[in-house]
Amino acid sequence: MNTSYPGRLLIVDLSSGTIHNEHISPERLTSFLGGRGVGVKLLWDLVSGSTDPLGKENALLVIPGALSGTSAPCSGRTTLLAKSPATGRYLKSNIGGWIGVSLKLAGIDGLVFTGKSAQPVYLSLSSKGWQLHPADDLWGQGVRPTTRALKEKHGADVEVMCIGPAGERLVKFASVMTSYYNAAARGGIGAVMGSKNLKAVVVDAAMGELTVADPNGFARAVKRARDLLYNDSIAEDLHKFGTARDVDALNELRILPSYNFQKSHISGEVGRISGRAWPDLGYLKGIVGCAGCIYSCHRFTRIDSGKYAGTYSGGPEYETVASFGSGCGLLDPEPVFVANYLCNDLGLDTISTGNVIQWAMESVQRGVLSRTDCDGIDLQFGNGDAVIEMVKNIAYRHGLGNLLAEGVAHAAEQIGQGSQRWAIQARGLEQSRVETRGAYAYALAFAVNPRGPDHLHSECLAEFGGTKEGRALVKRVAGDERYAVPNIEDKRAEIVRWHEDIYAVSDALGLCAFTTTAAYSLQEELIAEILKTATSIDLGPEELLKVGRRIITLERCFNLRDGLCPESDDILPWRIMHEPQPDLPGGGEPITPERLKRMLSEYYRLHGWDTHGFPTTTTLQELNLTFASPELSDAYDNCK
């Protein structure tokens, strides 16, 4: 193993205030690589099925990718892991910005937080040492003032990762933020950090450096990767207009989730909420990239006039626009920008926040919630001021916001009156903004995603056949380009499994998923070459994908151990499974339980899982995961 990647973990016991080093064995680094891979094995070892996600027994892991800190393109990603407060099961949340690179340059390949501090604290670290500091003066502060205060104290060049008031108040979809605007948002990772009274992590990477095992070979592989990515079909638009670039096109195709998934398009001047319009409308002020990025897909926007004048923030991304825009019936981009700014500063997941507000709006629409129930807020679709007010109330748990802060599954259970039918969630996680009744691979991927129904586990864009690279990928993994259409059952399992495997590898290495599951230019052969020349970890393309399968299967084992029963839990939101969406091309039939069961059956077979969705003994042996067998046996008996 090359010494530039020693696998050095910093173990922080917040209960006692002690900090020490541990090293991951070379064998484990080869088996799991880093990031999400190393993280899931650590999480398996550190927590159990009985662990309370908001209790001191839960662990919080911050693991940069194996390639983070190198010049590999788009390699600055970091994975945060814990047991999820939203779902009670496995959670990984990935973050960009510069925090992972800074950790690696400071000589740290991962942080492990255990226990709970008696008082608010933050951790500072550098290549010279580390220390816990009191954070009472920062508690209650937003992300911006917290970050500014810590930079004033420790130096302008330090990187700060922190939570806002939502994390402190244990909102079940609170985020962890870094570089002001980059979020690890899904599943309540910020609430885990808040439950430990950990306000922030400050990293000083000054004078740090990384080397690679084969500098010349690495440089050649990196140049080849850059050339491929620069010339990919999505490259120019992604850079110019960001992830919200196609909102208007999706609306025209009638696959834009709107009004809490009641419709798949929104009438009116939808182009104003599309990223393509923001330069001409004067909102776009800058284009931003994460560490190592060659695409710079992030936006920086500001409102210069009107009642929201002075509002500025990073983003918004597509998911944010679809959550607060079309999802809440808004065509005016300015309330969307304000809601995005608030979520970034208060530390909220924009997907879940928009989702719970949409649920409340539909509950008002159907007469289940009154204006009095909504604290006097006129929570109607299309009311931007109401959306803004409710974002604040959720973060601070005021009024109805206190109920919504528990997540839409809990809110619907409490309110009842059939409102579970329009709670767009499964297993406790609010679904991201993909109309899965018109995208069957996405639907299958969402049903088996270990953290719940969202796109950041297996982003199956290739099934739409929108680019030549995507169509070529479908031909390679499914046998024929004709399967690059989204609303058929055939070959969805093959498409999902490849995307899952490569996504897991991407997270383990710290690569942005846009390089592998959107651009499709950076595939396993070249990734293996980059990995070998950087770290001396020598895996062929198939062995690399096997690492992805190992990660996916251990995540499955984690959830099975924690009580997941596939027959009842490999599901989608009620609306997606039972209500058609006639606005969709072809009529938008629901992903019925029968249809989903057929796709799941093939998916289980491809993974080497049995007909009940449990990994077989043979599969566990092939993946060197036999340590999970005893607990899976107990879990199997409990599911029966």
Give an account of the 3D structure.
A six-stranded mixed beta sheet has the order 2-1-6-3-4-5, with helices on both faces. Strands 8-7-12-9-10-11 form a six-stranded mixed beta sheet. Strands 13-14-15 form a three-stranded antiparallel beta sheet. A hairpin with a 2-residue loop joins strand 16 (425-426) and strand 17 (429-430). The longest helix is centred in the C-terminal third of the chain and has 21 residues, at 541-561. It is α+β, with helices and mostly antiparallel strands. The protein folds into three domains: 8-204, Aldehyde ferredoxin oxidoreductase, N-terminal domain (Aldehyde Ferredoxin Oxidoreductase,  A, domain 1); 232-430, Aldehyde Ferredoxin Oxidoreductase Protein, subunit A, domain 2 (Orthogonal Bundle), CATH 1.10.569; 441-639, Aldehyde Ferredoxin Oxidoreductase Protein, subunit A, domain 3 (Orthogonal Bundle), CATH 1.10.599. The protein has 27 helices and 17 strands. Helix 2 runs parallel beside helix 22 and helix 17 crosses helix 25 (593-607). It starts with 7 loop residues before the first strand and ends with a helix. The mean pLDDT is 95.
Number of helices: 27
Q: Structural class of the secondary structure composition?
A: alpha+beta
Largest sheet: 6 strands, mixed
The CATH superfamily of the largest domain is: Aldehyde Ferredoxin Oxidoreductase Protein, subunit A, domain 2
Spatial arrangement of strands, main beta sheet: 2-1-6-3-4-5
CATH architectural category of the largest domain: Orthogonal Bundle
Top-tier CATH class of the largest domain: Mainly Alpha
